[in-house]
Amino acid sequence: MRTITKRTYIVVFLVLAFFAGLGIMLYSFYANGGTWASNRANNHIYSGGELTVAGTIYDRDGEALVSTNRNERVYHEDKSTRMGTLHIIGDSQGFISTGIQTLYRAELIGYNFIDGIYKTISSDEGCDIKLTVDADVSAAAYKAMNGNKGTVLVYNYKTGEVICMVSAPTYDVYNKPTDIDTDKSGKYDGIYLNRALTGVFTPGSTFKVVTAICAIENIPDIYDRTFTCKGKYTTGKGKGDGDVICNGTHGKVNFERALNVSCNSVFAQLAIELGADKMTETVRKLGFGKSISLGKVKTVKSTFSLSGSTRLDIGWAGIGQYTTLVNPCQMLMLMGAIANGGQAITPYLVSSPSELLSSVTSPVSSNITLSEETAKKVRKLLRSNVKNYYGDSKFPGLEMCGKTGSAEVSNGRSHAWFTGFSVKKDLPYAIVVCLENGGLGYTHAIPVANKVMQAVAKMD
Amino acid sequence: MTRKKRLEKGLAASTMTGGDRIRRKYKYVDRAFILTMLTVFQLVSFIPVVFSDGKVYFKIILQLLFYISFEWFYVGVMRIFVKKVNFELEFIAFFLSGIGLCLTASVNKDSMFKQLITVIAGILVYDILLWYLQDIKRVMFIRTPLAVFSLLFLGASFVYIRLFVGQINGAYNWLSFSGFSLQPSEFVKIAFVFVGAASLDKLLASKNIYMFIVFAMGCIGVLFLMKDFGTALIFFFTFIVISFMRSGDLRTLVFICAIALLGALQIIYFRPHVAARFASYRHVWEDIYGRGYQQTRVLIYSVSGGLFGVGIGNGCLRNVYASTTDLVFGLICEEMGIFIGVIIVVAFASIAIYAMISSRSAPSTFYSISACSAAAMILFQTCLNIFGITDLLPLTGVTLPFISQGGSSMICTWALFAFIKAADVRAYPKIYKTN
After folding, report:
1. Beta A129-131 vs A57-58: how paired, if at all?
2. Band of pLDDT at residue B257, cut at 50, 70 and 90
């Protein structure tokens, strides 16, 4: 009998194993509850794949961008606002995977481990989310883009609030084109993607800002030099050498003037002089290899690589061509860092409830390392661009700094870029405009940037 | 103090330890108190079932009142006429069966009656088996015929199902004729514990060991042919527990498990379709409209209910196939809450602890082994069910004892309870008194 008594302990082991399993099960309930409960297959809150019960998403002024009324999601009444905020708030079906309605659906449906979604089901009301974006600016940006593909991004470089994040092509949730899946013309290419977050583009001349930073930090007499532009820059006569064609014949120019006129000859020459190692180091320090976290969504990393490159390749890379691809958000943060004395503030979209803010661990991003001194110098150069070259009349009353870009791409017209910011005390906003195959930065991107920034200036 | 109470106290004092003697004082209160609480719980949980769809279901009220009065009647009769003193197992079974009845009635108003009949039938089987088990000679007498009969029954069922019934849910494990259906494997479970414990009682009789091994392998083999892998696994696991209880030899058990694992690998290798049935394991979210349908719905709706549930009748899992049978634990979590789900799990664990404690003072090794192995069987089946539908283990399609709708499972679990109860000396007060 005694031996049997001992052997009954096997039951204790079984019970312990059983409780261990229970523990794992409860933990996975706890850890994944929000994701599971907000699954599209949950008929408590979805009907036919559409969200039927969820909280309201407000813009920064408390305007409802989307809310629930009688088991249906109701979007903003203005069509341009709907189009301009589509990629931020996302659609009811979840095609736009980076939309707030998709990423924060567990919060919107009011899920928590204790109550599940009982409160939401019984009251037909979820939890509300307030965004930092402005409905009017978004609508203005969408209109200003005038049907072009691309993205417009604006954020407060002192606080990190994203005011505007428009991505095109876009569509009206109330009138979704029926030929999205069948269209072959390409007009809906990447329509479900938020280009600001998951897009990468050839930066073109906007990248000269990076080359300029590298030059300022590594060539002590950079401001004393003069360069001669003959319409092209010949890197040498050896293998892997060739010509970097300039956008004009600028003749004798100094560093500042070279950036004003965006002289390819000078910046190709500087990049080659600085060399692959220093260029790569600067690019790394400016955060191009890292993704930026905006709450629950991470941007795509920008790519810059000079491994195995020739002198000519480095020359092209110095003016933002070659294999370089940048994410618009990365460019925005770079502009923010320059504007804010070297400190890059991480952009964020969700301003309340406050517990959602905790995902932003530190307002100052560690992605970008830029000294205050360099930032000041670059800011001066960018201010000079607008003041002495583009003209302040392009941005009435805004005191803008910036750099345009016209990135050569293999298919079609160049990408039109404008990256910049205002130095006005009461207008601490940085902006990135990127129009895919939009043409020249100067003629196409600057007007868009102006319209958007004017809307920002009018914002309460 | 009445004479009866004094008698009761005397009986208790003679069988109990010091600590128990003090607790005994309150036992009277306890029994009535627990039954009252149980009644309250059942009345409350049936409210949304009785008043649903804007109607009042008098039929359900009658059936509920019958069930509740049966509980009181049973405990009363057993207490007064059979002089039983403890009803822990019965209370657990009443509690779990009550939840099963409630959900069954809630999902389908017409199916409660059948389920109620099976509960009563289960209790009858429990008492008959308990009576039979009290005499060890009877047990020894019947073990060989029972083994032979069970194996033949299982084999014949398989042949019959293969020829006349066909697969139901991917397995040949439902014996059905003229509108009546049962799972033969459930009844063989009872025989399995019986034969396993009885044949190993004489520790040194090697003939008996071989008989049991042949019997076990036969059962597991037929279950494999039936494609009822879940039940086959339960049988194998119980075989391991019985072998350990008997021999105490861990090395042999490791050896058996290794061979079984090799065998399983062989099956996966030569019969890829068997492995394919479990392909969605840990990948259920990749195919939420296909192979992962049931598990993902269980997970989605279990967490949706939170700790306290969305209320009986308000759930969505009830619309998923097998919501009152295999997936019933998910339905409990969604509608009654994860908290009740945990209580149920604790109830199952306490059955095992009860079996362990009782088996230490059991009058014979037969009772010890059968109690522990029956408890292990129930516990393992609970594991396979709960963790299978929540994707912590592969989904094998076994029922949740007492709660899942279905007669075979209900009767079998009550019968297994008889083995556990039989190990408790208090189960046979008359025998004990004469001693």
Report:
1. parallel
2. confident
> Quick check: A150 and A195 in contact, CB under 8 A?
yes
Compute CA distances B75 → A320, B123, B322, whole Å. Answer: 86, 12, 33
A456 min Cα distance to partner chain B (Å): 42
| Domains of chain A, start order | 51-131 (3.90.1310.10), 138-458 (3.40.710.10)
Tell me the whole-structure pTM to 2 decimals: 0.81
- Spatial contact of A39 and B300, defined as CB atoms under 8 Å apart: yes
Across the interface, of B248, B304, B368, the residue whose CB is closest to A44 is B304
pLDDT digits (tens, 9 = 90+) for B82-126: 888 889 999 999 999 999 999 999 999 999 999 999 999 999 999
The Cα of B36 is separated from the nearest Cα of chain A by a number of Å equal to 29
pLDDT band at B25 (very low <50, low <70, confident <90, very high): low
Residues 119-178 of A with CB under 8 A from B: 121-122
Nearest to B418 by CA among B194, B159, B129: B129
ipTM, interface predicted TM-score of the complex: 0.91
Q: Does A389 touch chain B (CB under 8 A)?
A: no
CB contacts of A24 in chain B (<8 Å) are 392
Region A205-210 average pLDDT: 94
B313 shares its domain with B201: yes
> CA nearest B354 in A: which residue?
A11
pLDDT given at position B435: 39
Does B296 lie at the interface with A, CB-CB under 8 angstroms?
Answer: yes
Domain boundary among B88, B104, B127: B127
A117 lies within 8 A of chain B by CB: yes
pLDDT for residue A356 is more than 80? no
Q: Which chain A residues touch B305 with a CB distance below 8 Å? A: 116, 118
CB pair distance less than 8 Å for B304 and A21:
no
| Domain residue limits at B390 | 135-434
Rounded distance between C-alpha atoms, residue A165 and residue A98, angstroms: 12
Strands A72-75 and A129-131: unpaired
**Would the pLDDT of A367 be above 80?**
yes
On whether both B285 and B394 belong to a single domain, the answer is yes
Does residue B144 carry a pLDDT above 90?
no
Q: Please, what is the average pLDDT of chain B?
A: 87
Residues 212-251 of B with CB under 8 A from A: 241, 244-245, 248
Which pLDDT belongs to residue B29? 57
Summarize pLDDT for A79-105 with one digit per residue, the tens: 999 999 999 999 988 899 899 988 888
Determine the residue type at A151: T
Q: Are residues B290 and B406 in the same domain?
A: yes
Region B289-300: mean pLDDT is 93
Q: List Cβ neighbours of B428 (8 Å cut-off, separation of 6 or more).
A: B134, B422
Which CA distances in Å does A146 have to A180, A324, A416, A436, A459?
Answer: 20, 27, 13, 12, 21
Percent of chain A with pLDDT over 90: 64
Chain B residues with CB-CB distance to A41 below 8 A: 288-289, 296-297, 300
Is a pLDDT exceeding 90 seen at residue A297? no
How far is residue A413's CA from residue A118's CA, in Å, rounded to a whole number? Answer: 54
Q: Is residue B350 classed as helix, strand or coil in its secondary structure?
A: helix
Could you say which DSSP state residue B364 is in? S
Final residue of a structural domain among B110, B127, B144: B127
What is the number of domains present in chain B? 2
